Amino acid sequence: MSGPAPPTRPGLPWRLASAAVMGSVGALSRGFLYGLNNVEVTGLSNLLRVLDRRKDVENRQRGLLTVCNHVAVLDDPLIWGILPLRYAVNVENLRWGLGAHDICFKNKFTTTFFSLGQVLPTHRNWHSPHGGIHQPTMTQALKLLSSPREGDGPEPPFFSTDGKDSHMAPAAYTANRNAWIHVFPEACCHQNPDSTLRYFKWGISRLILESDPAPEFIPMFVHGTQHIMPEERGWPRWAPRVGKRFRMVIGEPTDVDKVFGHHRAAWRRLVDKGDADLLRDGQEAVQLRIDVARAVRDEIEKLRESMGLKPEEDETAALAETWAKEPNKRKFRSPVDGSLINRH
């Protein structure tokens, strides 16, 4: 005898509140970008074409994974001001993001606001012992990106990030599956004069290797928000600057299997061995995550150079160990490349 069917959507009050948050923030972001700055977006049709195809939730066959560099504290939501307003209120066709638990979820008000804004509470190793790529939030992100598996029962309606808190589990609702997940794999604001990239953290590798089925993949590169919210800005520090040049390049959508198919095949071979410890910490699994994160970074680097920015000269910048010498501080000037870092 089969169990109860999973719920399709959150209740109407939650959906209306989420549409109000997402719609108002989207409208403010678009108004600020296009009304007070100079905007150049290349490849916007690449993203809109995919979103148009994904409007019918019931007919989605897979998720969407977008990836971008991170240069300013307002990158999200500001970069989504590029979307025409008709997209801003269809919350089931908008991105889910990962937000810092210690900032976005530090009290009841911010927790409610960012949850309605489709942000998942994420612990970071810099600030919390509950961080890392195996934290419960990553499980939620993977489920959102993937299709429900046949025979699975209803998902728990809530989840905890640390054994003490409680958050609504968006993956419990079938309309949220095969979702759009957006990731900033640098995981901190990196303001470098040449707009170079840091290494990409391995959470992006989990989303690529373990999602089922393989999602569509769209790389992006943003340039200019570091001038809108420069780390060395003076008073009023809270205010974004205006009259700046904002540029964004959006790559062609492709199937993750076309770019990372051999990595995913290697992962499935590891899964078939049935050793949980091997999947978590085994040398092959770790190397796969390193390789995938670097391959994703290479896709973003191509877009960066397409803007006419200086090609990367230091190949070791893609390696985590290169950046290990940085201090465990929230804000600092990196000893690696002299960039301004904000682990906001």
Automatic annotation (TrEMBL):
Keywords: Acyltransferase, Lipid metabolism, Membrane, Mitochondrion, Mitochondrion inner membrane, Mitochondrion outer membrane, Transferase. It is a peripheral membrane protein. It is found in: Mitochondrion inner membrane; Mitochondrion outer membrane. Its main location: mitochondrion. Residues 64-225 form the Phospholipid/glycerol acyltransferase domain. It catalyses: 1'-[1,2-diacyl-sn-glycero-3-phospho],3'-[1-acyl-sn-glycero-3-phospho]-glycerol + a 1,2-diacyl-sn-glycero-3-phosphocholine = a cardiolipin + a 1-acyl-sn-glycero-3-phosphocholine. GO terms for biological process: ATP synthesis coupled electron transport; cardiolipin acyl-chain remodeling; inner mitochondrial membrane organization; mitochondrial respirasome assembly; phospholipid biosynthetic process. GO terms for cellular component: mitochondrial inner membrane; mitochondrial outer membrane. One of its GO terms (molecular function) is 1-acylglycerophosphocholine O-acyltransferase activity. InterPro entries: Plipid/glycerol_acylTrfase, Tafazzin. Pfam families: Acyltransferase. SMART domains: PlsC. Belongs to the taffazin family. This is Tafazzin family protein. It comes from Hapsidospora chrysogenum (strain ATCC 11550 / CBS 779.69 / DSM 880 / IAM 14645 / JCM 23072 / IMI 49137) (Acremonium chrysogenum).
